[in-house]
Design a protein that fits this description.
heterodimer, A: Arc Repressor Mutant, subunit A, 3-stranded antiparallel beta sheet, 3 strands, B: mainly alpha, 54% helix
């Protein structure tokens, strides 16, 4: 491995880990120490404004509604989330943030913007644009790798389905 | 804070009067919120009082004010706007601008 490659690969992993760790530390030492990182991101997905449905929020977070229900139960108990059935359609559950939930959400967003602000600050506007362009390219590339895997997953599923179909036909025939 | 937005043509001729009256009401609300929060006298708060330096507000209390104002005035106060806020008057102007601008 070239020295540059080794360095970049090390940096990528470290940045990822340290952003998460800093967030966790900031949470545990801050006003909302009873929230985990995952719970904070659930509040973020609900957002400080209009009530959202469980399905919408689960899709945004990439989890099942079952998983979200468990998380929301806890957040309701801790006083961060309000849960209400839709008056018009009782099947729909709407969730929104309490005042405390809104505060946590706002302060968490601020954490991220301050982090980004401090990173960009030392650079000229031109260099900031260059940096964002290069980091976006890294983001795009990594995302494309992820898509390749989730793609192969569905290919595998399709292959399995075709094989099962074939077997069933053989058994029946 | 410079406000270059359009002069709200939907208001009538005495719009200066309306604007001042509205801003006074917003200031009253804001002063009440701050005095409730900090246990200080309303006379300690002037329009040119610098936030948070002159008022002992931490970031949580600052956002508490923001969340309360959003609720009372049915507005959204984005961080980009809040970054430009330095004085009590800046908050009043911002709340006024956000609550009078037409819905998008």
């Amino acid at each position: 491995m070239r020295a540059e490659e080794a360095k970049l690969s090390e940096l990528l992993v470290r940045i990822y880990e340290n952003v998460l760790l800093t967030e966790e530390q900031a949470l545990s030492k801050g006003y909302f120490s009873d929230l985990s990182n995952a719970e904070m991101h659930t509040l973020d997905a609900i957002g400080p404004y209009e009530a959202r449905t469980m399905t919408e929020t689960a899709t945004d977070l990439g989890v099942t509604t079952g998983t979200l229900t468990v998380a929301i139960d806890r957040l309701v108990k801790k006083g961060y989330v309000l849960r209400k059935r839709d008056e018009a359609d009782r099947r729909i559950v709407r969730i929104s943030l309490t005042k405390n939930g809104k505060l946590a959400c706002r302060i968490h967003t601020k954490f991220h913007t301050v982090l980004a602000k401090r990173i960009l600050e030392p650079y000229s506007l031109e260099d900031q644009e260059k940096l964002i362009k290069m980091v976006s390219e890294i983001d795009d590339y990594v995302a494309s790798q992820l898509r390749r895997y989730s793609g192969s997953d569905s290919i595998r599923k399709t292959a399995k389905k075709v094989a099962e179909e074939g077997r069933r036909r053989e058994e029946n025939g | 804070m410079d406000d270059n937005r359009d002069p709200m043509e939907y208001m009538n001729d005495d719009n200066t009067l309306d604007e001042n009256k509205m801003k006074d009401l917003i200031l009253d609300d804001l002063v009440k919120m701050i005095t409730d929060m900090l246990d200080i006298s309303p006379t300690d708060i002037r329009p040119d009082t610098i936030i948070p330096d002159e008022l002992d507000l931490d970031s949580l209390q600052l956002y508490e004010l923001v969340v309360d104002l959003e609720e009372v005035y049915s507005i959204r106060m984005p961080d980009e706007d809040l970054d430009n806020v330095k004085t009590v008057k800046d908050i009043v102007d911002l709340v006024f601008r956000l609550s009078t601008q037409p819905e998008k």
